[in-house]
Amino acid sequence: MTGLWLALFFLLGATVGSFINVVADRLPEGKSIISPPSHCPGCQQGLSAKDVIPIFSYLWLKGRCRYCGITIPRRLFWVELGTAILFAFLYGHYGLNWELAIVAFYCCLFIVLLLIDLEHNILPNKIVYPAVIFAIVIAALGSIFGFEPRDIADTGFRLWIVDATIGGGIGFGLLLLPALFYRGGMGWGDIKLAALIGLVTGFPLVLPAMFLAIVSGGLTAAILLLLKLKNRKDAIPFGPFLSLAAMATLFWGSNLLNWLSENVAPTL
C-alpha cells in the first residue's frame, strides 16, 4: 500500500511540477496562468493532452515540439521530474497528514521563486506578499487550534505564531543590515523572501536556514569567480539559495540546528 501511495504522490508531483513551469514562465511576463491553454512558444500550436503528459511527453517527443520541431527547454522536464521525486519524498517523510499539505505548498512556492529569480532576477511581490499573509494566518490558526509542524523548534512560548513572528523578524533583519550598509549587498526582494522564510521556519530554525543560504551562496559565488564564469560586477541571484535552504530546513531543520550548535556556535 505504501508503494501505491508513493507512486500516486510521484504522479501528483509531476502534475504540480508542470503547473509550476507554467507559473514560472507566465507570471514574470504578466500573463495569465490559466489562459490561453498550453501551446508551443515557437509555432503557437495548441498542445493536445498527449503532448502535455508530465515527464513522459518530453521523453516521448525527445525534447522537441511535435508540430514544428523546436527544442523544448530541458528545465520543463527537470522541474516535473524533480517535483515528482520531491512529493514522493514528502509523503515518505511526513505520511498522509495536514503537515504534508502545508510543507508541499511551501516547497512549491519556493521552487517557483527559485526559477523566476534564476531566470529573471526578480522575486515578484505578487507571490511573496500573499505567501507572507498565508504564513501568518496558518501560524495563527495553528496556535489557536493547537497544531504545529513536528519539526518546528520551540522557543519556549509553545505558540507557533510567536515562533513565526520572531523568525520573520530575524530573517528580515539579517539581510536588511547588509542592504543598508553595503551598496549592492542585498536586493529588497531577497530581504522580503528572507522574512517569509523566517515566518515559515520559525525561530530558531530561521538561523540554520539563513546560515545555509549565506554559506552556499558565498561558496558558489567564489567558485564562479575563480573559474572566471562571473566577474565581480555580475549579479548572482540569491533567491535560489534562500529557497533551497528554506526547503532543506523544512525537512531537517532540527538536525541542522543541533549540528550548528555543536560545531559552529562554540567557535564564534
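^ that was protein a. below is b, sequence first then the C-alpha cells
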Amino acid sequence: MALLTFKGGVHPDDGKSLSKDKAIVEVKPKGNLVYPVSQHIGAPASPVVAVGDRVLKGQKIAEAGGFVSAPVYASVSGTVKAIEPRFNPTGSKVNSIVIENDGEYEEVEYKAVKPLEEMTKEEILNAIGEAGVVGMGGAGFPTRVKLSPKEPDKIEYIIANCAECEPYITADYRRMMENPKELVGGMRAVLKLFDNAKGIFGVEDNKPDCIAKLKELTKDEPRMEVLALKTKYPQGGERQLIYATTGRAINSAMLPADAGCVVDNVETMITINRAVTEGKPSMERVVTVSGNAVNEPGNFKVPFGINQAELVEAAGGFKTEPQKIISGGPMMGFSMFTLDVPVTKTSSSILGFTKDEVAEHEPTACINCGRCVDACPSRLIPSRLADYAEHHDEETFTKHEGLECMECGSCSFVCPAKRPLKQAIGSMRKIALANRKKK
C-alpha cells in the first residue's frame, strides 16, 4: 500500500538523531516561574491571585477571559511575587504572574472524577475547558472550543497529529514511545464526544516503532486506526494531514470542522487524557532541547513557567555560544534574542545552532526556476507573491491567493537565490488579514 501524503513539500535534514533516543527526563525549576496570561489564541486569562498570595501546585491563578480563552494554573507551590509585563518566547511583553518556588510542590486536592464511560459529553468538555487545555503543537487554540463545533454530528474524523515533521523536534516521538496509553486514552475521551467519528493516528513512516506500539494498543478499538504517512515536510501541517489521511481539502477560509475533521497533536491528546481521567489541569509538557550547539540534546518534562535558560542548562548548556537560537522548529519556529523567557503551553523545543545559515547567505535575484512552486504544499507561486509583498501590492497579493500561504517555509528552503520568501509573504499576510478585520 502506498504511503499517504500530499503534493509538494520538501525533505530537509531532520536532525532527529541528536535526541530521538534520549528518554524523557523530568526537570525541576530552580528560580522563579513566570506564567504569561496569554498562552493561547483568544482573550488573555484574568489573574485571580494577588501579590503576596501563597499558591499550591495545581491551583488556578488566572481564569479564562472569555469563550475563546483558557485558564492558567500554578505548576509549583510558592508565593506570588509580581503581576507585571514580562517577555514571552516570541519576544513580546505580556502580562505575567511571577511565582517564587518554595520547593515543596504542595499540591491541591483534585476533585474526584467519574470513569470515562459514566461521563456525559458536557462533563468531558467542562473537564477539558476547566483544565486549561490548548493546542500544544504551536497554535494554542483552546481545545474546548475546538471540540465544540456547531454540528458535532457532522464530525467524521478525529485525527491525532503524530507526524512531528519539523526537523530536530522529538518530544512527540518520545511521548508516543513512553506514554502511548495516555495518547490512546486522550483519543478515547475525544471520540466519546462525537458519535459518528473515527479516530486516526497519522504517523510518519520514519517512526515504525511508534506505528507498531499504537497498532498494538488499538487492535481492539474498532473506532481507531493507525495510518502510516510518507515522511515529508510539512506532513504535520493541518491541511496536509487532513488531505493525506482523509483525502479532504480545506483552504484558509475553512476550519477542519468544515471538512468533518478535528485535529489535535500528541501532547494535547495526552493532556486531555490527564484532565478527563485524573482531573488534573494543564501544568507541564515535554520540550526538546537540541541543535549542534547543545552539549547533551534531549527531551525534558518541565512545568510551565520554568525559565528556558534552566532547560538549556539541564541539557548540559552550549558547547559554544550559538549564533542562532530558535523556539520551535527551524522551518516554522522563530529566532530568540534571549533565553530569559518561560516555557509556555506551546513551547515544543529550544534549538541552538553554531551557525546562522540564513544570515550567511546574501539573497540574489530570482532566476524563475520554479522550485518554490514545486515545493509549495498550498500550490501557490511563492516567488511572485514575495514580489507583490515587497512592493506592498496588497490587492494583487490577495488576488493571487496570498492568504492561502501557511508559512511553512518550504519555498525559502529550496530557493537557490536564498530569497526570504516565507518572511516577505508572511509579513504581507499579517497586513492583509489585519486590514480584512478592520473592514
